[in-house]
Structure formats: C-alpha cells, structure tokens
Amino acid sequence: MSNSATIPGYDYGSPRVPRSAVTLDDLRQLEQAAGFTEADCQALRRAAEVLSDRAEQMVDAWRARIAAQPELARWFFDPQGRPDEEYKAAVKRRFVQWVRDACTRPRDQAWLDYQEEIGRRHTPAGKNRTDGANTPPLVSLRYLLAFAAVVSSIRPFLAGKGHGPEEVEAMQAAWGKALLVQVALWSRPYTQEGLW
Ligand code: HEM
Questions:
Q1: Using a 6 Å cutoff on CB, does residue 186 contact ligand 1?
Q2: pLDDT tens digits, one per residue of 117-150
Q3: For labelling alongside 178, which of 81, 88, 104, 158 has CA 20 to 30 A away?
Q4: Measured distance CA(135)–CA(45) in Å, rounded
Q5: Cα 111 to chain center, whole Å?
Q6: Is 141 in the pocket of ligand 1 (CB under 6 A)?
Q7: Is 152's C-beta closer than 6 angstroms to any atom of ligand 1?
Q8: CA 99, CA 191: separation in Å to the nearest integer?
Q9: Residues of the chain with pLDDT under 50
C-alpha cells in the first residue's frame, strides 16, 4: 500500500485546501437523503479490508472504460491529441488513494473540504493545476454524473474474500450511497451560487 503522504498533489487535510462552504449539518442532511447511516459507515470500514489491496485494480478497470470511450479519454489528452501519460499516472495514484479514503476517512471537516477540492479538480478552476498538465480544462458535469453508474458497482471486487452474499450486499449498498453523496458534493463547484 502506498503511503498517502508521498502522493504528489494529494492535499487531503492540508491547509492548501480551502474550507468547503458546505457545513457538516448540510452533509448530514445529504447523507440522510441518500439513506446513508452509521451501519453503512461500518460496512464501508469492513469493505476497506477487502478493497484495500484491490484499489489499483478497481481504478484500472474504470480507466479502461474511460480509455475505450473517446469522449471521455480526451480529458487526459495533450494538445497534440495524445494521452498525457504523466498526468494519467499522477492522477491515478490519487484516485487509488480515494478508494481507500472513501471507505475509511471520518466524515469531518477535512473530508468535506477535500470533497470540494475533488469536484473543483474536475472543473476549469482546478483541472490540470495540481500536475501542471495541459489537457482540456473541464470534465463535463454530465459525464461525472453518468460515470457514477460505473464506479458505483463494485460487487466483483468485494467477492472472493470469504464474505457471504448478505455481507457483500451491505458493503455494495454502503459504497453506492457513499459515492452518490460524494458526487453530489463534487457537483457544487459546477453550479451557480444559490442553486446547489
Ligand atoms: C463518479 C465518477 C468519478 C469518480 C469517482 C472520480 C474520481 C476522481 C478522483 C478521486 C480524482 C483525484 C482527485 C485528487 O486529485 O485527489 C479524479 C481526478 C480526475 N478525474 Fe475523475 N472521477 C469520476 C469521473 C470522471 C470522469 C467521467 C472523467 C473523464 C474522463 C474523469 C476525469 C478525471 C481527471 C482528468 C482527473 C484529474 C483532474 C486534475 O486534477 O487535473 N473523472 N477523479
């Protein structure tokens, strides 16, 4: 497992990350709206034990989907229209870390602040800046939302480590809800003040 402190551009908990305008009360409301409960929190922690050494494999599977669809792949392309491999590799390390964070990090202010930052990094206000890349400045919101359908389904990665179907289902359900809450938070930097 990589030590998250050594991942370039991974600014979780750093003073470089601005405070989110979303409050912890807003977050609890959002979690409630998604039906995300304390039991889901615990299921996610159990999922972390299963997923931790599979996180890279998960990201590779999602990346393969992106690479296979030109409309998505182009957000990693340099001005010559070629994949920017350095950028892809740098982002991948943070994406793998996110899988672990999504299961284990307490949902506190630092977590909330980094959700805003992840959203921002998909928009012109933040994309490319962390890695000094020169790729298109935006991942369109509609694709961020639609791709949640791919990332939300992790049953194949949860299986095969001795958990029964009910337990796998609990972990899957918790992951799906947690993901939707995060994607809802990531949508904020895309929206007009007052409409989020
Ligand atoms: C629900 C779906 C998605 C999830 C869970 C997700 C997750 C992430 C995460 C965790 C990061 C790294 C954040 C960090 O810097 O710490 C990231 C960055 C990025 N994602 Fe996504 N993403 C999603 C959809 C997409 C889609 C559809 C694309 C389009 C190809 C995309 C392209 C990118 C790019 C280009 C970056 C790097 C942004 C930058 O810092 O320059 N993402 N994503």
A1: no
A2: 999 999 999 999 999 999 999 999 999 999 999 9
A3: 88
A4: 35
A5: 12
A6: no
A7: no
A8: 25
A9: 1
> Which residue in this structure is represented by tokens 């007009």?
192
- Tell me which amino acid residue 59 is: V
Tokens of 194: 């007052």
- At 83, phi and psi to the nearest 5? -60, 135
Q: Does 120 contact ligand 1 (Cβ within 6 A)?
A: no
For the chain, how far is it from start to end, CA to CA, in angstroms? 36
pLDDT at 160: 85
Measured CA to CA in angstroms, residue 144 lies from 75, 121, 136, 171 at distances of 12, 12, 15, 23
Q: HSE on the CB side for 180, CA within 13 Å?
A: 14
What is the distance in A from the centroid of ligand 1 to the CA of 115? 12
**Beta carbon of 17 within 6 Å of any ligand 1 atom:** no
- In three-state secondary structure terms, 66 is helix
> Of how many residues is the chain composed?
196
Give the pLDDT score at 168. 97
At 1 the pLDDT is 45
